[in-house]
C-alpha cells in the first residue's frame, strides 16, 4: 500500500516540502500547500469531491477527512477546504466543511457538512460542530454542539501560527530521517 492513491485518474498533489507519513492513506483529488504535513493513520478521501489543505497546515494522527457527493439537492456536493497554518489535532473528523486560516481544531473534534470556521479560531477538544454552523473569527468554541465561549486572547491568537510553525519544524526533522 502507498500513501498516495489515484481515484478516477486523479492522484493527490503535493506542494514543496510536504510530509506524508507512510501509514497515512490519501485518495484522489487532494492538494496540499507547501510545508503541510499529514501524520500517522490519517485517512483522506478526495473521491466524490475534492480536498484542499493550505500551506503549513498539519493533519495529526488518526484524523479522517472526507467530502460530500453531488446530489439533486446539492448539485456541486461539498468539498473539504482547510486554510493555511491550521492545526488539526489527533483523531479529528472533518466532513465536507470549510476551515479558515490559523485555526486549531482540538483533538477528537467532529466538524460536519457545510460548517464554516472563520480565521483565528480555537475549537476545544472533543467538540462537535453541527452541519452548516458558522464559527465567528477570533473566538474560542467548546462543547457538543459547540457554543461560543469567549474571544481569543492576544496570546492565543499569537499561538495559532506558532503551532503551525512547530509542526513545520517537526515534519522537517522527520523528512531528514527518511
Ligand atoms: C478549551 C481549551 C482551549 C481551554 O480553554 P480555557 O478557556 O483555558 O479553559 P479552562 O481550562 O480555563 O476551562 C474553562 C472551562 O471550560 C471547560 N473546558 C475546557 N476544555 C473544554 C473542552 N475541550 N470542551 C468543553 N469544555 C471544556 C473547563 O472544564 C472549564 O469549565 P468550568 O468553568 O465549568 O470549570 C482547552 O481545554 C482545549 O480543549 N484545547 C485544545 C487542545 C488540543 O486539542 N490541541 C490539539 C493539538 S495536539
UniProtKB/TrEMBL annotation:
Stored Pfam families: Hexapep (PF00132)
CDD domains cross-referenced by the UniProt entry: LbH_gamma_CA_like (cd04645)
Domain of life: Bacteria
Name used for this protein in its record: Gamma carbonic anhydrase family protein
Organism: Zobellella endophytica
Amino acid at each position: 500500500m502507498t500513501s498516495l492513491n489515484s481515484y478516477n485518474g486523479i492522484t493527490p498533489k503535493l506542494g514543496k516540502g510536504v510530509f506524508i507519513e507512510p501509514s497515512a492513506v490519501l485518495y484522489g483529488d487532494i492538494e496540499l500547500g507547501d510545508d503541510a504535513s499529514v501524520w500517522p493513520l490519517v485517512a483522506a478521501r478526495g473521491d466524490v469531491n475534492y480536498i484542499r489543505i493550505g500551506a503549513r497546515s498539519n493533519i495529526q494522527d488518526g484524523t479522517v477527512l472526507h467530502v460530500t457527493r453531488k446530489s439533486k439537492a446539492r448539485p456541486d456536493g461539498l468539498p473539504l477546504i482547510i486554510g493555511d497554518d491550521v492545526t488539526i489535532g489527533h483523531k479529528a473528523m472533518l466532513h465536507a466543511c470549510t476551515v479558515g486560516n490559523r485555526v486549531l481544531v482540538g483533538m477528537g473534534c467532529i466538524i460536519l457538512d457545510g460548517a464554516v470556521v472563520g480565521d483565528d479560531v480555537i475549537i476545544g477538544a472533543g467538540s462537535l460542530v453541527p452541519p452548516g454552523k458558522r464559527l465567528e473569527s477570533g473566538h474560542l468554541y467548546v462543547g457538543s454542539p459547540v457554543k461560543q465561549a469567549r474571544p481569543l486572547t492576544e496570546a492565543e491568537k499569537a499561538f495559532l501560527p506558532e503551532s503551525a510553525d512547530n509542526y513545520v519544524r517537526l515534519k522537517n526533522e522527520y523528512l531528514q530521517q527518511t
